[in-house]
Amino acid sequence: MADGIEEFLCWRGPASVDVFVLGAGNTPLPNESFRLAGLVPDAVLPYVLLEPPEDIERLGLVSYDLDFDDTSLDLRAYTRAALRRVCEGSRAVAWAAFEGSFHYDELLTDQVAHQVYGYCVSGTEPVVEWDRAALRSEEWRHRIAGARTALDALRSAPEDRAHQQESA
User: Fold this and answer.
1) How many Cβ atoms from other residues are within 10 Å of residue 87's Cβ?
2) 15-63 tens-digit pLDDT
3) Nearest C-alpha neighbor of 96 from the set 109, 108, 111
4) How far apart are the first and last CA of the chain?
């Protein structure tokens, strides 16, 4: 697949699906949670991101590097399943993006939309795009803007409401 994103997932050796989730708290899921779509990552590297803005800190933001030594695997279905998993049980927004795309000021903005290859808003089905040309399209920027709207709504929700949703 010449126009796919596989080469970008393998920039540091293993194939790495990088997933971020806002709203599911600051406690990473156990490694077993990522045995999905018939695949088991060779490494699950969770990171609680440091020094977040206050509105992000109260919701929780965790990043996961989900690594596979076999770089020939088709990870599209796995990415979709991982996004679904991190959004389960809480009001959250999750996205899969290339390494280096993360900055608190640029979460799901137009500037990084072409580096985001999947997203999920709790209560909806995850969306994953594997074609590089599609990631650069206006339609994709528009879809990422919709996820950004959900992220902004989550960030601006009153604190007590966000905690009620999180524990539901």
Assistant:
1) 23
2) 999 999 999 999 999 999 999 999 999 999 999 988 999 999 999 999 9
3) 108
4) 41
Q: Which residues of 57-84 are buried (b: 16+ CB within 10 A; e: fewer)?
A: ebbbbbbbbbbbeeeeeebbebbbbbbb
pTM value surpassing 0.85: yes
Per-residue confidence at 99, pLDDT binned at 50, 70, 90? Answer: confident
- For the record, the structure tokens of 93 come out as 């927004």
- Please provide the size of the chain in residues: 168
CA distances from 12 to 29, 48, 95, 96, 110 (A): 24, 21, 20, 17, 26
